[in-house]
Amino acid sequence: MPPGPTQTVIVGPNTPWAVQVDLWMTPYGFLREAANNTSTVTSKSVSGKKYTVVTFTAPNKAKVNGYIDANNMVDRVETWVDTPMLGDTLIEADYSNYKDFGGVKFPTTIEVKEGAYPILDVNVADVKPNAPAAFQGNPTGVPPTPPTTSEKLADGVYLILPAYAALAVDFKDYIVIVEGPQSEERASAIIAEAKKDIPNKPIKYVVNTHGHFDHSGGLRTFVAEGATIITHQQNKAYFAKILTLPHKLNPDREEQNKKKVSIETMTDKKVLTDGNQVIELHRLQGSNHNDGLLVAYLPKEKILVEADAFNPPNQANAPPNPVNANNINLKQNLDRLKLDVETIIPIHYPADGRKVSIAEFQRTMGKTD
Question: pTM, whole model, 2 decimals?
């Protein structure tokens, strides 16, 4: 059986904390950083088991606690990180069943939780201490972000790139943004670009295609801007809860402004219009990606904005991606709704920035029904 995928992370002085934290949470990473920082030591009993608890402060000003058992093994490490959607979030790593590997004791059972939800459960079969490694690529672990740009697609309609893409639409008295993705940084860039393209108007609505965090991570920034979120009704209670969670570790605009969260919902269809500009919002029925997955359709311009239903290849000369269930579902819904589409705006926009036509989608689909 071929070896599985590998992941290499190189930590340097400029590596973001979000990348470093996974290494600080390991037993050896914790012990190294506890020695390099001003640490305090206390005693604590948890479920009848006595621990020596070593605590220091991380670069994000959150406490890092390491629980060391009677055998001087690191049993647990916990800290708090900021996430765009959940705010101050507890990260817990539990280590057990230590074994000796070439003179180094290492846990063979690793369980990690984020916000009380399991995100990693690993059984370690082998450890090679001090094995040589060849490092390649970006030492920060995070690729640089290209500058934000916009392109006028039609009167009052602007495509904001790079991916994740967003659409800014000029209504009589306000702006509508389709998608508030990723983070405060990305949302702020979208807002600034939209106001440059459409000056002197407020952003009244931000349309959320679905609840996955990469597509909703910027919603708090739009709330701080005073915008109302339009989303499928299944998301309302969840968004109303998590968009008000505290962000004390890394206060964002919403933490500072404390704007009231405003949410409008829809089921299968909603139309936004000022008598001239029109945006139709439709739910993709039968989607296996997300039951509340929305697309935005501009009937005059024949533009469709969609997320994760069709992700074209990054380069125009690349072979089409294999047809998948999401592509088939999109075609079925376009046929059902009888939408006359000429241009597709994938939120996951191709890296070459090309215009994606309905013809490209049809070529991808081939003769698949």
Answer: 0.85
